[in-house]
Model the fold of this input.
Amino acid sequence: MTNGLQQLEIIILLLIGVLAFMAIARHLLIPYPIFLVLGGLALSLVPGVPVVHLEPDLVFLIFLPPILWAAAYFTSFRDFQANLRSITLLAVGGVLFTTIAVAAAAHWVMDLAWPVGFLLGAIVSPPDAIAPLAIARRMEIPRRLLVILEGEALANDATALILYRFAVGAIAVGVFSFTQAAGIFAAIVAGEILWGIGVGWLMLRLRRWVNDPHIEIMLSILTPFIAYWPQEHLGVAGPS
Done:
C-alpha cells in the first residue's frame, strides 16, 4: 500500500511539473511538446529520481478517456463533418495500411509470424499528432489541413486499439482470419460510433435537465468514463 501511495504521489508531482513546464513554454513562446521533451530529458539526468511504474490498465482506464474527451470537446463538429472523408481515410485507411505494411515487413524481413507482425503494426501505426499540431498552429498553414490533422489524431487511436485486440487474440488462439476480422472490425467501429453519439446525447439532455452548475461539472467529468468503461468491459476498447 505504501509503495502504491508513493507511486501516486510521484505521478501527481510529475503532473504538477508538466503544468509548470507548459506554463513556462507558453511564456517563452515555445511549443510545449518540445519543452516537455527537453524537460523530461533534463529530469532523467537528475541523480536519485525514483522510477515510475505505470500499469497499462491505469493509463487506459484513467488517463486515456479524459484526454480523448478533451480533444473531442475542442474539435469543431462542423469542420469535422465537412472533412469526414479525408479524416476517415487517414484515421482508418492510413492506420490499416501502415499496420499491414509493418506486418508484411516483419513477416518477410524478420521472419515473424503474421499475428505478431500485425501486433507490431498496430502498436506503431497511429501517429501522435500532438507535437506537430502544437508547432503547426504557430505556422501559417491552411485551416483545413489543421482540422484534418486534429480529426485524424482524435480517431486513429480507436482504429489501432481494435487492431491491437485482433492481433492479441490471433496470437492467443494461433489462428487469424482476415475476412472474419474485417467484419468484426466494421461492426465494432459502427457500434462505438453509435454508442458515442448516444452517450453524448444522453449527457447533454441530463445537463439541461438538472440545470445545476455543480451537477453539470460532475456529469462532464464522468462523461468520458461512461463512454469508455462499458466498452472496455465488453472487450471492444483498449487492450485486455
Remarks:
- The two ends are 25 Å apart (CA to CA).
- Residues 132 and 205 are 36 Å apart (CA to CA).
- The longest helix spans residues 178-210.
